[in-house]
User: Which sequence fits this backbone?
């Protein structure tokens, strides 16, 4: 293939007509250091070990199919579970314990997020945070704070008899953008042709970093609820103890130590893989597709499996029969969150973020901040915490009500985002193509001219992370 060495051509020789291969040059050592790390916060440390020559495997023109597949997986989980086909039986697997189902969902979500964030880390160029720290600082600091407060205000306004600090806990669960759905949005032919590479990278970086940084937003609300709400009944210590736990346990133990752990484990994994290659314990081809195999396996197995599991364990009946919020308010809340959780924040900060140019990119970046696996993860983290807010061995009344509010509201917002974001891009593309067919009749040779005009030039591809091998290139 043009522009590649014989060795690289051998690596990519398995490419079929329905695939598009992004080839890796070398630097697998840095890639392996990221893949060896497994914490949900690791994007912050992984990115400096990832090099710009990472290659991923993806189907041609697949971005719409990937998003629709999440919706299909969700529906499959609904259909295959009780009371429909009754093929997937989470409660039976857990021997009738809803708490065990919740624990399984928590750890399943953690697994998917951990692997997905490793992939997000290696997709970024080396030293990306060093060069783009200003844009990320705006998104992760004022940006996340604005999303947290705006969502909390909407929840506070729509859920009857809910205190604002309780609404802050609900809002914190859906503050991080989901790395699984975000990765589907910014990869593929549509993204390559319509979303600038810089914008793709900042979305990937944000969705990875803010996923781990959701902890402080959630736990400042939870600790205040535990030690100050209802007069701190059963949990003495007050606001001072709440802040001590927030700084000591949340910031130092969960976040700082996770970064240190990820860095050490990642470096050890890189050294081990390099040692194995030097002693010819692994062949060259396997060494270079190490990252590709992980990415492909995650996308095709874990990601879709987790959405099917969500369809099976989601509390669907509670949406229409919950006494914490009427169904019409719940639907209205879902619409408001999708429209106002993120778009106003992106618009306000667009002049500070160089990757966002023009109103089209403001709307794209603002709307496609999906709520998914990360929200479910934080949902069950919050539920596990609230079960320990007790008085005489019984869950305190305000904590018990917050459990129900979080379960209903967060799950509903997750479903709204999966369906809304999963169908918006494919339907938008379908409508756009339909309008083009109506307004501009197809002429002979148009397809070839279009493929040439949209093919990326070598100069544009030079130095870009994961440069694509165009499907039209010939050996």
Assistant:
């Amino acid at each position: 293939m043009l522009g590649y060495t014989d060795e690289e051509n051998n690596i990519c020789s398995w490419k079929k007509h329905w695939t598009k291969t992004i080839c890796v040059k070398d630097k697998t050592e840095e890639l392996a250091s990221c893949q060896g790390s497994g914490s949900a916060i690791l994007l912050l440390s992984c990115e400096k070990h990832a090099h710009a020559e990472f290659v991923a495997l993806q189907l041609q023109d697949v971005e719409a199919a990937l998003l629709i597949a999440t919706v299909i997986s969700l529906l499959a989980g609904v259909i295959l579970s009780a009371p429909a086909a009754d093929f997937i039986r989470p409660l039976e697997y857990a021997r009738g314990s809803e708490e065990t189902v919740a624990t399984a969902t928590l750890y399943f979500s953690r697994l998917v997020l951990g692997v997905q964030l490793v992939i997000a880390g290696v997709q970024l160029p080396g030293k990306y945070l060093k060069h783009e720290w200003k844009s990320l600082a705006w998104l992760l600091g004022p940006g996340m704070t604005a999303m947290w407060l705006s969502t909390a205000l909407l929840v506070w306004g729509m859920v009857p008899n809910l205190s604002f600090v309780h609404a802050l806990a609900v809002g914190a669960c859906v503050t991080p953008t989901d790395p699984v759905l975000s990765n589907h949005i910014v990869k593929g032919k549509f993204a390559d042709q319509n979303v600038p590479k810089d914008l793709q990278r900042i979305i990937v970086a944000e969705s990875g970093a803010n996923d781990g940084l959701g902890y402080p937003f959630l736990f400042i609300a939870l600790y205040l609820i535990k030690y100050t709400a209802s007069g701190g009944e059963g949990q003495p210590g007050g606001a001072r103890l709440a802040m001590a736990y927030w700084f000591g346990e949340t910031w130092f133990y969960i976040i700082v130590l996770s970064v240190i752990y990820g860095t050490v484990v990642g470096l050890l994994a890189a050294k081990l893989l390099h040692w194995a290659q030097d002693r010819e314990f692994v062949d060259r081809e396997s060494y270079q597709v190490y990252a590709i195999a992980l990415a492909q396996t995650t996308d095709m197995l874990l990601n879709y499996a987790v959405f099917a599991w969500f369809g099976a364990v989601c509390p669907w009946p509670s949406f229409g029969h919950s006494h914490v919020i009427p169904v019409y308010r719940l639907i209205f809340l879902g619409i408001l969150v999708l429209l106002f959780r993120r778009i106003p924040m992106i618009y306000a900060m667009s002049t500070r973020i160089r990757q966002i140019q023009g109103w089209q990119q403001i709307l794209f970046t603002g709307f496609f901040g999906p709520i998914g696996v990360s929200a479910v993860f934080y949902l069950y983290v919050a539920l596990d915490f609230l079960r320990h807010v007790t008085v005489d061995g019984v869950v305190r009344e305000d904590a018990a009500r917050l459990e129900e509010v979080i379960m209903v509201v967060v799950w509903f917002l997750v479903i709204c985002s999966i369906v809304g974001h999963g169908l918006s891009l494919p339907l938008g593309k379908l409508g756009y193509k339909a309008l083009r067919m109506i307004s501009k009749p197809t002429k002979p040779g148009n397809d070839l001219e279009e493929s040439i005009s949209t093919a990326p030039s070598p100069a544009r591809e030079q130095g870009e992370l994961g440069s694509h091998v165009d499907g039209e290139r010939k050996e």
Q: What stands out?
A: DSSP finds 23 helices and four strands in the chain. Confidence is low (pLDDT under 50) at residues 1-63, 442-475.
